[in-house]
Amino acid sequence: MDEPLDLEHDAPADGLSAPAWAAFGDLMAGVLGAFVLVLAAALVGQLDLAHQLQAEVAQREAEQARREALEQALAGPLAESLKAGLITLAEGRIGISGAVLFATGSAELHGDGRALLKRLAGPLRSYLAQRDEALMVSGFTDDRAVVTGQFADNWELSAQRALTVMRVLTAEGLPPDAVFAAAFGPQQPVASNDDAAGRALNRRVEIAPTPRPQRAGAAAASAPASATAR
User: Fold this and answer.
1) Among 82, 161, 184, 192, which residue's beta carbon has the most beta carbons within 10 A?
2) Bridge-partner residues for 139, per DSSP?
3) Judging by DSSP bridges, how do beta strands 179-185 and 93-97 pair with one another?
4) Are residues 99 and 159 in the same domain?
5) Residue 83, domain member (yes or no)
6) Enclosing domain of residue 163
7) Structural contact between residues 162 and 137, judged by C-beta atoms closer than 8 angstroms
8) Which residues cross the membrane (predicted)?
9) Total-model pTM
């Protein structure tokens, strides 16, 4: 007669059956797959972060280059005005004291202020000719209420002053589509409004280059032909 099989001796030495080994293998494969997915996600995140950092560095370098170009454009022709403190140049922004341009509560230019803007127009015109940028002319005031009846409040006064400066610059040859005005009223002060000296610093006009907004014509040209041919 055939002897019965000895099942104990046929089992694996470590005590695990074949199905158990298969389940263990599947578990380890799942763990390894999860690890690979986590590692891939981490690598993708690092790549995205690296690209973001590169974009930020490129943006900062472009802004620095724009500031340096503006300073070089103004350094020679306006050296005396800079030295006399009639204008300031910091972080790529040209600052002009409100007292140089306007009387208190007025948006009508002084004669000296108009002459200063005319001297400023030439270098700015040359600067814009070399770059696809625009100039933002911003008006600022102190926080004292407007006492004349010509303007409703400081917002309106700052807007009219910015427009006055913008119109002089375009009359001196700057492209009208490359200059725009902005009004900030008493917002964004550079000094305390608690004393006369600080309020005088806050009454100012600033001119700053900025990337030119995408033109409507360029956007239309880039649109699909099927969208325009109707």
Assistant:
1) 161
2) 183, 205
3) unpaired
4) yes
5) yes
6) 76-213
7) yes
8) 20-44
9) 0.68
